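Deviation from plan, reported transparently: adenosine-2'-monophosphate complex.
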Amino acid sequence: MRLFAAVVPPPEQLDELGHVLDGLHRLPGADGLRWASRPGWHLTLAFMGEVDEELLPELRVRLARAAHRTPPFPLRLHGGGHFGRRALWAGVAGDLDTLRILAERSDAAARRAGVAMDEHRRYQAHLTIARVRAEGVDLRPFVDGLGGLEGTRWEVGELALVRSNLPVRGVPGEQPRYETVDTWALEGPAGGSG
Ligand code: 2AM
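Because the crystal trials were delayed, the predicted structure below was used instead.
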């Protein structure tokens, strides 16, 4: 099964993002983007790809440990950006150090459980909201629109293991379906994220 570890913002914060996106959907070029549907909105911590089911028990133990060691921390949705000409994302602000540590711990948990992880790339916190469908869409106006995104702060209290069910090939507009496999409360001591 295809798995990743993630942080999922609460409904109020997703509503705030939704309001900003309502404006972006009206911009020229919006039809050239494939907009991620709200039930799938998340901040990826560590992408694992195909994971052998046999590894799941050990992966759960290790992710539980990662969550247990990491304290809850504040985040808010903030602005946005793009990856090349491919993807448009909403950004976050707040305790990005602890977010990065949680991402590193999730990556290490998967490796130690025997998951073949990609090489480390610098962690860039983002919530993908759209992917480019038609070549040549200028993403700048969309990033400018996201400049107005200043979400309400929330306390990240949970690490989620999410399963991604890929869409059937060739079905236009189909999206991956995300299913939360398990969640663990962040329980580390305050100031103990390092
Ligand atoms: P993205 O948001 O930048 O697209 C589920 O596919 C999640 O894992 C997505 O949020 C995706 O990030 C992330 N991810 C990271 N590396 C990936 C990869 N090599 N293939 C697919 N998804 C990946």
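Residues 4, 44, 47, 87, 128, 164 surround adenosine-2'-monophosphate (CB under 6 Å). We consider this an acceptable substitute for the interim report.
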